[in-house]
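Deviations from the work plan: none for this task. Representative record:
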Amino acid sequence: MDLGLAGEAALVTGGSRGIGAAVVVALARQGCDVAFTYHGRADAAEAVAVKVRALGRRAMAIKADVASFADAEKTVTTVVRDLGRLDILVCNAGITWDGVIWKMTEKQWDTVIETNLKGYFNYNRAVAGIFKDQRSGKIVNVSSINGLRGKFAQSNYSASKAGNIALTKALARELGKFNVNVNCVAPGMVMTEMAESIPPEFLNAAVKETVLGRIAAPEDVANVIAFLCSDASRHVTGEVVKVDGGQYI
Amino acid sequence: MARVGVIGIGHGQFGRRTDATVQELAFEAYREALRDAGITPDAIDASVIGSVPEYHKQRSLAGVVQEYLALNPKATWLTEVACASGSAAVRTAWMAIRSGLHDVVAVIGCQKMTELTTAEILALMGRVGEVQWESVFGTTFPGYYAMFARRHMHEFGTTREHLSLVAVKNHYYGARNDKALFRKEITVEKASASDPVASPFLVYDCCANADGAACLILASEERAKATSDRVVWLDGIGCASSSMSVLRRPDLTSLPSAVLASRQAYRMAGITAGDVKVAEVHDCFTIAEIMAYEDLGFCEKGQGGPFIAERQSYIGGATPVNVDGGLKAKGHPIGATGVSMAYEIVRQLRGECGERQVPGADVGLTHNVGGIGQYCFVNVYRRD
Amino acid sequence: MFQWFGKVSYCPHTKVSEFADHLKGGRIMASRCAECGFMSFPPRADCPKCLGGEFEFRELCGRGTVVTYTRIDAAPAGFEDVAPYTVGVVDLEETGRLLAWFGPSIPEDRIRIGMPIQVVPRLFEELEEIKVYYSLEQPGTVWGKEPETRPAGGAERGK
């Protein structure tokens, strides 16, 4: 399906693996030049960049700590300079560090919040002025169904993901009149490296509560994100789209 | 063709009249005019009320004025063309008499402006311009004339001092008019150092809101001659309009409506600008008087600044203008102003103005502008 | 949505209400009579020349020249918080005249009659509600325009 994105430029945070990598490739397949940040895995990042280039699009892999406000500003400036424009931001970089709250350390809480919530603020803020002034732009923030329902032993992660949703809704109100759409996707269980570390009994439990009876592939989420990055969804903003196979209805 | 004459005039005190309703103000002028004419109310066939309704809490003002003047069941109606509403009342009375419909008509210009709260005045201020494309940028009444002034300065070299000199003249004569709001002379220095309003205008470039009323009794030629031996005749009347929007005015240094209205009035009266011995012009802002000198033909276009600088609009100059203090010193109760101008001209032509009397005044003119020239009424009065 | 136009809207209903939609999208439009071609700014629905009632919008480049201006210190209701401000009347290069505020790119002491300016579409960015206007800026000032997107199926632009 052609979403009319040919020639646009996108920035994806956390693009070397998992959902982020699938989004990078999906957008490149739609004709976008794509820049993405990665944190540790230069080899994985390079593999994704190769895929983008194989599709005939430009790729930029940028090592960055999304929790750094200064890094975000610098990254966005570099991307606009090198790709010549910026039309799309997908905030995806996130981590988990689970534990029941009475055993959760301050560092455990702060680290997850700084990456998952402040990291989204950093990039949303860095592109907002650009999108505002150019009177166009799409922002998609990747949240989680656990930001809607809360999850056992994930008070930090659930809070950060709920924060992503509220950030999205507030920003949609601020940027709507500038023709900028801001939306959220809330995936359920997705088969990523993050999921691979989960004990099998938890995965089975997830499948059991998912009405479609399967765990999502990263591409299932990436396709919805690509749609939200396009003018096919131009009248959708401030929305949270669950991509969870009916895991949380 | 039969003439229309002024047989009686009356004028109330202008100012902040916290002692009176608008109909009470109207009565002051009406009583004085009837006594001046030496007639009783039963001689009046109809009344025309000139006033701007949005300043009054009482809707449909003519009704309450007519009742308070005890003129029911005589015909009455209201005329409204912003600051020229009083002259519109004079014009429709003239038409009613010339048509043969009425013989004696009371014209009452009245306005109560100080009942409004500051918030209400600020809200009204915001709607003086064309509201669709201009008021949305916070334009104000002084702002429009200030833009005329800026353009006039640019094209003709009119100066800040020229503006102040108009205010100085009008305060000079206002100090000698017991009906005026401001009765103090000012200096150029004082006028040029007042607070900014809309550049290049300062406080002393602007007239002040006021309460007040004025009244004329107009009569057919036959009735006028039968009633009075000092009739002042309304021999020329002119009226024209210009665009509401300043954006549709190619020339911002002139009011085209004033040029047209004056030419109509001169033609009807069979005079030229040079025949006018005394004039009342609409000096809502200092530049407005300078533009009026030019629009009315008292001086060449662009020479309004030198005209005041050479004191040509003082008594003794080429054409004395606003020797009652003008809107600037008398105050500007907007519905009353046009009738107040006529009151002054009639007194000048009758020779009743004492130290402000223009010697040999036999032809006088009123120039009453609505808004920023959307409407202009020019009337020529003559003493036989 | 003409109530979008202006810091204070006095005039919500007009036949040229789409002017405000275009302005929000970054475009300043004049009207052009569909019958005789008469152009007008400010736009008007009804032609004063041929009396025609059909018109179309034509985008203006927004270049113009200052005719006159004033700095307003005594502001009316709804404008107290932005006073003092300077408004100018501008002769537009293509057709008509326009009145607007001078924007931040032209400080008051540099304003002159006859100076060239660029009219730039603006939004009150820090108000939640949509309020659009235009300001007078330095020639060469650039600004963003919404792409002229239409939903799949080619329906008319939504009102």
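Chain C touches chain A at residues 24-26, 123, 125, 128, 130, 143-147, 149, 151-152 (CB under 8 Å).
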